[in-house]
Each structure stands twice: as structure tokens, then as C-alpha cells.
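Consider what follows.

. . .
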Amino acid sequence: GHILAFGTNGSFGSIYKSSDAGASFTARFTSSFSTTATPFLSYGNISNASRNPAVSPVAGTVAIFGVPAEGMVVSTDFGTTWTVKSLSSVIDPTNGFIGSYMYDKDGNLLIHYIFDTSATSWDTDVAKSGNNGTTWTKLNTPNVPTPTGSVYSKRVIALGTGEYLMCIQSQFDCYRSSDGGATWTNVGNVGDVFLWSHTQGTTSYILGSGDAGILKTTNGGLNFTAFSDGIPHPTAAEITLLNNKDMVIGATRPYYSSDF
């Protein structure tokens, strides 16, 4: 197996890789951005839920998003080599924002983005890439207007069963697409915005931004049930499955379950 770790190399953020179960690590990518100026790939920038590596179902492919000016980095060989890709087609290099991102079950990369956060009226959209971020196609997602004339931000995730779920920031309405983002249906208020998911069979475990904790769906996002027993609400910050049978949840301290 392979282990990727994030830290610094001098004053620059780096990605390290271990191929010997963590006995040793080698720097495989070092950012050109100093961590003393604009942290990229350093612990402080990557340790929150919106900066997790996106792992593709295509073996060996991983994508990581950093600060807007540098864009994203992609590896297709299990983290041995990395390619920097610009995001200038979807976000402003200074004021742009990537809110959420995930690979879908077919290896397409989804992102939610705001082109320019300094603009009076936000351009907040969802885009999909079939070539690991080289080009992007904007999806026709619903916009919900704010009282001030702008639109509410969004977050988007992909389920392992193929569906996309897009939640409206502050309003918590959830829109579902079962056709790759071509059409969307409002499935109701979920009390949160979704950031990440892990799927086992037909069951998906969904991480929210904090208001609803962890939710579970067994029908591709048509209905949801709470899944946070034993976890101090709403402190979950990461969720992963180990060997498809054990769940580990990162919070103020890690939580483990083998009976989910």
C-alpha cells in the first residue's frame, strides 16, 4: 500500500509518500508557494474537511486543491509524481474559492466553486471534469437567490452509487441528480450542507459541515437518517471506511465503529 502525508519542506508545503507502511517518507511534490506567505499543502491548509485528497476510483489517481493562485495537483501513479493544473477557467486566481470536490463513481471530478468572492453578486456553480481538471464543464445547477440580490453558495458531493447531491448553503435544501448533473430534483431540507461521502454497497455515509453531523442514505439520496450516535454533535470532521467493514470518524478525537 501507499501512504501520503502533508507537511513542509523548508518553508514550502509538500506531499510526502511512503511505500513501506510508514517506515520512511520521501517528498514527491513541493509547492512553489511559501507557507509563510500563502500556505499550500501545509498542515494548516489541508487539515480541514474541504482540503481532503480526492481519491478517484481509477487506480492511482488523487487530486488535491490548494490556494486559488496555484490551483490543483494531480497524481495518476499513486502519488509518485504530481502535475500542477490551473483553475483559472473556473476561479479567479486571487479571490476564487473551491468549496467542495469529489470524484464520482466513473472517475469524473466534481467541484463547487465561486469565481470571485469579492464580487457583489457571486457566480457560484458546479463543474465536472473528465480529465482530472485539465478542462471543466459547467453543470446546470439550481440557483437560490438571497434577499440582497446575490445567490446562496452551494456544496456538491458524489455518491458511490452514482448520484450527485447539491446542498444550498444556509437554506439546506438538497438537490439530487441521477443523470450525471444534467437535471436536478429538490429532495427536501437536510439541515446541513454536505462535504464528503463514503459508500459501501448501496449505503452511503455522508459528512455534513457540522449542523447535521453524519447522515446515512440507502437509496441514493432520496431519504436520509441520522448516524451520529456516540459522537459529540456536531464535531465530526472526517469520515472513512477501513477494509469496507470498519468506520473511523475524525473529530476532536477519533471515533471508531465496527457495527455501523
